[in-house]
Amino acid sequence: MDNQSGKRLKHFLQSEKIEQKKLAEELGTTAQYINAICQGRKGLGKAQAMRIQELYGVSAGWLLTGQGTMSIAETIEQPSTPPQDESPMQVIAQLTDLLRQSTEENARLRARVIELQNLVSTLSRSSVNYLDIAAEPTSNDNNQA
After folding, report:
1. pLDDT value of position 128
2. CATH superfamily of this structure's domain 4-77
């Protein structure tokens, strides 16, 4: 059993001033169970770590393995550096290509939205015409009155 994940959970709870009881309630378990994890008597499961990540933004990977940073936000905010074997020009070329692909996809999506708007507009007019026709009295209706 890895009691290091319990130590990391305890560190996180203390640093964020979150009570074990509150975490237990949000996970649908008991404070005693959370305390047992923090003390290393029970292991932290993957599902629990993922739920804690969803609730608080703490990295499930960090909780379970200690690798990476505690906060997901810190991981996202860290700028990525290009691999050492790529020149800045290669990176720029790759980014330019990605931007071009994104622009082409956006243009396709815009065209599709316009098509759908036109279709909805046509269908709306058709249904109004159908309702107008359905509401008109027929010659049989006039004869019966």
Report:
1. 60
2. lambda repressor-like DNA-binding domains (1.10.260.40)
